[in-house]
Amino acid sequence: MQCTPGHHSPSLLRWINHLCPHSSSDTDSSPEDDLAHLLELQPSELVKVIRELRVELSRKNKLIHYYSSVFSNITGARDAVVSVLDFIDNIAANHSNLGSLNTRTLASSAHLDWIDEAWVNHVTTNQDTQDWWTSENPRPLRSTTTAFPPSPT
């Protein structure tokens, strides 16, 4: 098959010329010069050029596939990335406002174990509380983190 300038794009011919080991000039040449140079190559040299082009095409296809999968992953995780960036912005804003905050402390003498003991004592010894427990008013709580006080019986 005879190659003519109209059958190949100029960029393809430049690329083939770039891969060709006999290239003598680094400047851009015309498509006609590239085609003439290709027609001068031996069949083994043309096979070598084609193999190099196939390797390059394979490498570029792998890169395209890799970057499209990375892009898909980033797109899928966009909400998480936005949430993390918002969180970082909030931390930075709070950090910059630390100097203007007035620090106050509150003293508390509450001891949780004493409060629990006082409540159990109140429930078991107070007559009004015992009457309330035996009435129809007490209802079980939906969920609690501590046990119910003992019921007076």
Question: Any overview of this molecule?
Answer:
There is one protein chain. α1 (10-19) crosses α2 (31-40). The longest helix has 34 residues, at 43-76. With 153 residues, the protein is mainly alpha-helical. The radius of gyration is 41 Å and the shape is rod-shaped. It has six helices and no strands. The N and C termini lie far apart (108 Å). The protein is 62% helix and 0% strand. The chain folds into two domains: 5-76; 111-139 and 146-153, no CATH class.
* N-to-C order of helices and strands: HHHHHH
Please estimate the helix content: 55-70%
Strand content: under 5%
Helical stretch count? Answer: 6
Q: Tell me the number of strands.
A: 0
What does the overall shape look like? Answer: rod-shaped
Rounded Rg: 41 Å
Sheet of most strands: none
User: Taking all residues together, what is the mean pLDDT?
Assistant: 75
Based on secondary structure, the structural category is mainly alpha
Q: How many discrete domains?
A: 2
Oligomer: single chain
Uncertain stretches: 1-9
Distance between the termini: 108 Å
Care to give the gist of this entry?
This protein is mostly helical and 153 residues long.
Topology (SSEs and partners):
Blueprint (H helix, E strand, L loop, with lengths): L9 H10 L11 H10 L2 H34 L1 H19 L15 H14 L1 H8 L19
Protein traits:
rod-shaped; 153 residues; mainly alpha; disordered N terminus; 2 domains; 6 helices
